[in-house]
Design brief:
The protein is of the alpha/beta class. 56% of the residues lie in helices and 9% in strands. It has helices spanning 25-35, 55-75, 79-98, 103-129, 142-145, 169-190, 210-222, 226-232, 246-261, 264-273, 301-317, 325-334, 340-366, 382-393, 395-405; strands at 18-20, 39-43, 49-54, 136-140, 157-161, 207-209, 239-243, 297-299, 374-376. The strands form 3 sheets. It has a 4-stranded mixed sheet with strand order 6-5-4-7. Strands 1-2-3 form a 3-stranded mixed sheet. A two-stranded antiparallel sheet has the order 8-9. Helix 2 (55-75) packs antiparallel against helix 3 and helix 3 (79-98) packs antiparallel against helix 4.
Amino acid sequence: GLPVDRPAYEFMNAPLISIGEEETLSRAVILMQEKDVEYLCVRDNNGRIYGILRKTDLVNLQHNTGAVLIAAVESALSVTELKIIYQRLPLYVNALSESGARTSIITNVITATSDAITAKLEQFIIRDLGSPPVPYVFVALGSEGRCEQTLLTDQDNAIIYQDIGEDRKDEVGAYFANYGRKMCSLLNEIGFRYCTGNIMANNPRWSQPLLEWRRYFAAWITQPEPKHLLESAIFFDFRPVCGETSLVVELGNHVQRLLVDNPPFLVHLAREGMSYKTPLGLFGKIQTESDEEHSGGLNIKSPLRVIVNLVRLYAMKHQLMETNSIRRIQRLHEKSIFNSSFYKNILYAYDYMMVLQLKTQARAFNLGKDITNYIDLSNLSTIELNTLKNVISQLGTFQNKAKYDFGVSE
């Protein structure tokens, strides 16, 4: 609505901020942040402007990244192609992280890519082994089961198959033993590291019929010894990746009934969640690792685990079938289990630490360094460090609430 006879210089931005066509999108994000602009002009190799990159384009990319990777996975014809696609994932995570994407967006991309790769491997394996002798489901456990994988997540998986008669036990067991070995080996080849605790489908103990899985959970819940508590925690975050999902639903319903009938289990589990000591010293200073390798660093996975464990505890008590921590927190708020204040605080604490972990891992990848769960506090800004201190200081409040709600005595 402005007069067309007014000179252009009154409205134009100057100097014009531009970026070369060969630069990465992550660099474009950084440049926009540094210059506080909403768009960049794109120059070709001769310096001529031939396009504009807007911040909204990058926001749209956040939602489409998963689709790009999954489409590539679905068209892959070999394990080698899948490996190449997986090696691109940190680049996408880095771009999303630098553009300010939240935890749910980044972990959704990682999870969707991981699931698509696993489903593709299932096709390769069935092509080699033949059709499964009975219905089965390949399940993700732990952080995979919660859809909370980072760039440093090892394999945690298992196989559940339909109950069978004694006469078919050896035949069916042999098929899924081969399946588990092939699947875990191929995942490792692609880049999903083997689980150091051997909680994988290539371990015969974790490739069993539904009846045996019922027995496992019954033993963990009805005999809550410290060994069982530590062993079982990872298994309560299970979800189907490929196969017959009804087997997971059936097992989930069985677990819920066991929890209702055995309330002492949750008390014991809550007591275990009280063992973490907040790493804050005098005057609120964060206590870092003492070993030389990680001196000055904080293993962010430890305080994160406090929230994950407590939220899982409430979800189990209130019969929630969700496995994702953010979704569990939201559902607990919807059911008025968490009041608005507690909900906002615990959600913010979890999201902040997850974003910090993902950013640190993406930055390490970008610099060609080893990806770890350690946060170098010297790399944080004053605001980031103070926010982290505040978030960690609230963990004791979260633990005290659980201690009261679950009747945990000293």
